Amino acid sequence: MKIKTDFLIKKLKQIEKKRREHEPLVKDLMSSDVLTIGSEDTVVSAAEKMLEHRIHSLIVTDRKKPVGIVGAYDLLLVMSISDYFDRSTKVKDVMVKDLLTVKPEDSPTTALEKMIEYNIRRLAVVEDEKLVGILSIIDLVLGFVDLSKINLNLKQE
User: Fold this and answer.
1) Residues 6+ apart with CB under 8 A from 39
2) Beta strand pairing status for 101-102 and 65-71?
3) What is the model's pLDDT at position 70?
4) How far apart are CA 16 and CA 31, in angstroms?
5) Which of 118, 121, 124, 137 is nearest to 66 (CA)?
6) Radius of gyration of the CA atoms of the chain, in A
7) Domains detected in the chain
8) Mean pLDDT of 4-33
9) Are 38 and 91 in contact (CB under 8 A)?
10) pTM given for the model
11) How far apart, in whole angstroms, are the C-alpha atoms of residue 102 and residue 127?
12) How far is residue 93's CA from residue 43's CA, in Å, rounded to a whole number?
């Protein structure tokens, strides 16, 4: 868990630096290293990828274009209680096809409102139909945190 914590602390410091320059936008909070999976890949390979990278969802792509999202919960339901599942089940058969997105220039408030309205934890960040990032609820939390009011034993940089 230390690696994940270090990553979050580093990200929080980067956001705080941006906040001093201007009001943060989605592009300041998002993760640009997005892990994806092809729509023709199997749900087993999706689960393995999520476990390997310790993440909870993957953006589904078809010819490098984002077409959906598949989450750990989706896989859990399909793999554990569905008569539909076998090891060759394709991601495209279980993914959420209505991919909700935001733009890099959108405000964090806009993104948060969309997450609340649709009861989701992640949004794909898309610009000119190209996937440029992913924004999670934790990214938004970090964006709204006042670093001076929390004690993380951080050294000033």
Assistant:
1) 60, 61, 62, 67, 68, 90, 91, 92, 95
2) unpaired
3) 96
4) 15
5) 124
6) 17
7) 2-149 (3.10.580.10)
8) 78
9) yes
10) 0.77
11) 8
12) 9
